[in-house]
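Q: What residues go here?
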């Protein structure tokens, strides 16, 4: 099975080059002002040019209004939208119709019962991103470097397409792949030397760890 790998929160040419050179299938840009990974739509549009024909460029928003979304779509020209807020299934359907783009809906998880939150979005969202619930006091819905119990995904319907996110890094990705066997993974803070600062060496290290884990499973 092919494994999609998304490097999220990109802001520099160097980080983009490293992600693409390592074989990232998706590259993400954050449009949430409180995040240290925030990037202006026009700058994201410049950066995403390097990904054309190589990786899916994802615009990540949090309860964004139509005016801001219009600007993001016009200036960045994303291949996909990721909604990381409290958007309803109706809002997801509305945005798909408005922009003609696939949508990935992020849902925070901490226990098996949280998987019930998927149901309203099935058949509407094109993909899910499962992240850990943010720590108390955090203003960020994602990118907190916190993991959840990956074992709760074992009972997930095989037809649910998702990316696993939250607290992933080179040290634990092997365990995550073994326990959950996700179709995709998403990493942000796990390849940073400081909040919002992507480290090309850590990106390369993460991809090496993924390859090693997959080689071990195939052996």
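A:
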């Amino acid at each position: 099975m092919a494994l999609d790998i998304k490097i999220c929160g990109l802001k520099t040419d160097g980080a983009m080059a490293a992600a693409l050179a390592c074989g990232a299938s998706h590259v993400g840009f954050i449009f949430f002002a409180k995040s240290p990974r925030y990037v202006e739509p026009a700058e994201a549009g410049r950066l995403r040019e390097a990904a054309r024909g190589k990786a899916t460029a994802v615009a990540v928003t949090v309860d964004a209004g139509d005016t801001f979304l219009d600007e993001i779509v016009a200036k960045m020209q994303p291949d996909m939208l990721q909604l990381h807020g409290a958007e309803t299934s109706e809002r997801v359907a509305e945005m798909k119709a408005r922009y003609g783009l696939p949508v990935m809906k992020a849902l925070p998880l901490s226990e098996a019962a949280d998987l019930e939150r998927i149901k309203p979005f099935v058949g509407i969202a094109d993909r899910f991103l499962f992240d850990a619930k943010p720590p108390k006091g955090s203003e960020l819905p994602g990118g907190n470097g916190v993991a959840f119990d990956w074992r709760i995904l074992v009972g997930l319907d095989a037809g649910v397409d998702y990316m696993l996110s939250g607290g992933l890094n080179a040290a634990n990705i092997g365990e995550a792949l073994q326990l959950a066997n996700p179709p995709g993974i998403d990493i942000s803070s796990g390849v940073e030397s400081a909040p919002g600062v992507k480290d090309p060496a850590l990106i390369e290290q993460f991809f090496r760890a993924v390859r090693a884990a997959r080689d071990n499973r195939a052996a």
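A: Context that may help when evaluating the design: The mean pLDDT is 92. The first strand starts at residue 4 and ends at 7.
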